[in-house]
Write a structure and sequence with these properties.
about 45% helix, about 240 residues, 8 strands, Protein Transport Mog1p, Chain A, single chain, alpha+beta, about 15% strand
């Protein structure tokens, strides 16, 4: 089961952008090579040279313009995707920044794992994330987590607070779900505390992840073996309402 996500790493997001850019660059090179004969018509007779030279120049300009349009469209799509659906102001300006988070003992029939079992789970994720993590079992006294709940506040995480003052909620979500390897995250009800919440499945399909962001906190619920995104979004909202104050 996925136990933690590095919420500050931009490597996955940068990798996606670089990967798409590399594919685009390769495509441009291939098109340029395959159109070499079309771009460079040959004059069969000396008197055809002026006409063929003008045609060659025209075709090269047309192809170059087409490539510029394709590159511009790629850039515009990426920027629009990043800015879509939410205001593009700093996340810290969207609400209160002084909220706190306390992990509840039980939520919707899930029980907080404590003691040695919790310590062993924490050791596996030490240094991998700046968030606080809690593990929940379906049975009281259980040691195997079915749900992982993680959260952070501005007081706990100065780096995260700085990101919220510099970046929009949309940027934070794009970066988070890129790191979590979730491609189909959808908006769900964030509840009375506001902000935004999105849920989606990992590429493997074995974990549903719901993540919320507001001006001062963020939190994540990861449910192993879940298939119903709406059901997990309801569970995530219950965790948030119980933990965030």
């Amino acid at each position: 089961m996925l136990l933690a996500i590095d919420t500050h790493s931009t490597a996955f997001l940068q990798g996606q952008v670089l990967g798409l850019a590399a594919v685009l660059a390769v495509g441009i090179v291939v098109v340029w090579v395959l159109t070499r004969r079309w771009r460079n018509p040959v004059a069969m007779m000396p008197e055809d040279l002026p006409r063929v030279t003008a045609l060659r120049k025209k075709r090269q300009i047309l192809l170059a313009l087409a490539m510029v349009v394709i590159c511009a469209s790629f850039t515009a799509k990426f920027v629009l995707d990043l800015r879509s659906e939410t205001p593009y102001g700093a996340a810290a300006e969207t609400g209160p920044t002084n909220r706190t988070v306390d992990a509840p003992d039980t939520v919707a029939g899930y029980h907080l794992i404590t003691g040695e079992a919790a310590a062993q789970l924490a050791a596996k994720t030490k240094g991998r994330t700046s968030e606080h993590l809690w593990y929940y079992s379906k049975a009281p006294g259980g040691t195997q987590p079915s749900v992982v709940f993680s959260a952070s506040t501005a007081a706990w995480d100065p780096e995260g607070a700085a990101e919220k003052s510099e970046h929009s909620l949309e940027w934070l979500f794009v970066n988070f779900f890129a790191g979590a390897k979730v491609e189909d995250a959808k908006d769900v009800d964030p509840g009375p505390l506001g902000g935004l919440m999105r849920c989606g499945r990992t590429k493997s399909g074995s974990v549903v992840i719901c993540h919320w962001e507001d001006a001062g906190t963020d939190g994540t619920v990861m449910a192993s073996g879940a298939t119903d995104i709406q059901q997990v979004s309801t569970l995530a909202l219950q965790f948030r309402n119980a933990a965030e104050h």
